[in-house]
Structures are given as C-alpha cells and as structure tokens.
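Ticket #4471: structure output looks truncated?

Reporter: J.K.
Steps to reproduce: submitted the chain below (140 residues) through the standard prediction queue, then opened the result file.
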Amino acid sequence: MAVLCLAVVATVSARAQESGEAAIRALELKMLDCYKLRQVDVFAAVLDDDFVITFEDGSTYSKTGYLSYSASSSTHVELAEIGEMKVRMHGETAVVTGVYHEKGVDAQKEYDYRDRFTDIWMKKSGKWRLVAAHYSVPKK
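Returned output as attached by the reporter:
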C-alpha cells in the first residue's frame, strides 16, 4: 500500500511539474508577442509588483520603468524570438533560460540584438508572476 501511495504521489507531482512548465512556456511566448506589439497592458498584468530587469549594460528597471521603456513609440520591433528555451521547475518557482533575438528600428536606427536571458517566475495567489529577468550578451 505504501509503495502504491508513493507511486501515485510521484505521478501527481510529475504531472503538476509538466503542467507548470507548459504554463510558463505559454506565458513566455505570450509576453514575447505582447512586447513586440507593445501591448503593455497585457504583460503588465503578468509582471510582479516587485519585478526587476537587468539589461546587457547593467542598467535595471522596476516594473514601472520597464513598462515605460517597453511602451516607447520610438522603437519598432520587427522580430522578437526565443530559442533554446529551457524551463526548470522548483515547486512554485520556475527558472527559464534561453536565447533571445530582437531586430527592429529605434530612434530611426536599425538594431539587431542577440542575447542570453534568464527569467524567474513565481506562483503567487494561484497565478504565475514574472519576478525577475536578466539579459546578457554572449561572448563571440
């Protein structure tokens, strides 16, 4: 009986982890689309109130600062994509790593960024919230 209970608990736990991973992957892709289309209100709801992001140059923004930055009308994102996405679940926390590629025009100048990223998600009050993000430029 004890072995059966352990097997059931392990199966339920594995399914919950897979479900969490699928939810995080979907949220990452939704955030990507919303960023590209500057639908700031949509991804504002997913960012934790204490959210912080660190960019390649070391600058950091809070939730409010990042939303203002993302809403900039001088930037037109033509391409935004994620590759090599890996989601690691740790209970109610998820760590996402991957490759980020963005191409567009900012202040009438073309740009093409290729970064590595790390996103940290936490489940709060039953909803996944992005609490931190970090971008860095890989060595060539």
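Triage note (M.O.): checked the attachment and the full token line is present. Strands lie at 47-54, 60-62, 75-90, 93-106, 109-124, 127-136.
Status: closed, working as intended.
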